[in-house]
Amino acid sequence: MAATWNLSKPVAQSAEDGDEDDAWGAAREEAAAAKAREADRKAREEKIKAEAEIAKTQRLADAVALGEEMKAQRLEDEANEVLEREQQEKEAEKVRKAARDAARAQVQSVEQTVDLDAQRDIMKQYEQSFLDKDIGSASPSSDFGF
Predict the structure, then answer these.
(1) Left if phi > 0, otherwise alpha if psi is -120 to 50, otherwise beta: which for 112?
(2) DSSP per residue over 97-145, as a string?
(3) How far is CA 79 from the centre of its chain?
(4) How far is 75 from 134, CA to CA, in rounded Å?
(5) Are 9 and 17 in contact (CB under 8 A)?
(6) Half-sphere exposure of 88 (CA within 13 A, CB side)
(7) Full pLDDT tens readout for the chain, 146 residues
């Protein structure tokens, strides 16, 4: 006797299988939707990471540019300060030279004059001071105030 293995499904069981097929189909659809949501989430995360990297790069470039600008400004300020200091030194040198020239002119403008009468009076007083000492006593003690 040969056995036939082709059995027909009972009617009640085929309704349950339909429910199972619907549940499996819904699960597959849900899995596909979850997979799509996960892909969208990953895409959004990658986009956010890329935007953050671009923003970081831009901030870094801005910081470097600002640093260069500040360095250039500092160098310009230092150059201006050096020029100002040099100009002040030149002006001070001009003032010193003018004062030196004025002093030289004043010294050269002085005429040398000799007042012979005043010279005679000074010499008489000088000689008189020697004579006063010689005329005094010959004792040495008088020279010392005894």
Answers:
(1) beta
(2) HHHHHHHHHHHHHPPP---HHHHHHHHHHHHHHHHHHHHS-S-HHHHTT
(3) 14
(4) 82
(5) yes
(6) 6
(7) 555 666 555 544 444 556 677 888 888 999 999 999 999 999 999 999 999 999 999 999 999 999 999 999 999 999 999 999 999 999 999 999 999 999 999 888 877 777 888 889 999 998 888 776 655 555 555 556 55
Alpha carbon distance 105, 141 (integer Å): 55
CA atoms within 13 A on the CB side of 144: 4
In the block, residue with structure tokens 């010959």 = 138
DSSP 8-state code for residue 27: H
Q: What are 13's two structure tokens?
A: 């069981």
Q: Are 77 and 71 in contact (CB under 8 A)?
A: no
Residues written for the chain: 146
Q: In Å, how far are 19, 67, 119 from 78, measured between CA atoms?
A: 86, 16, 64
- Alpha-carbon gap, residue 85 to 91, rounded angstroms: 10
Nearest to 133 by CA among 125, 143, 141: 143
pTM, 2 dp: 0.40
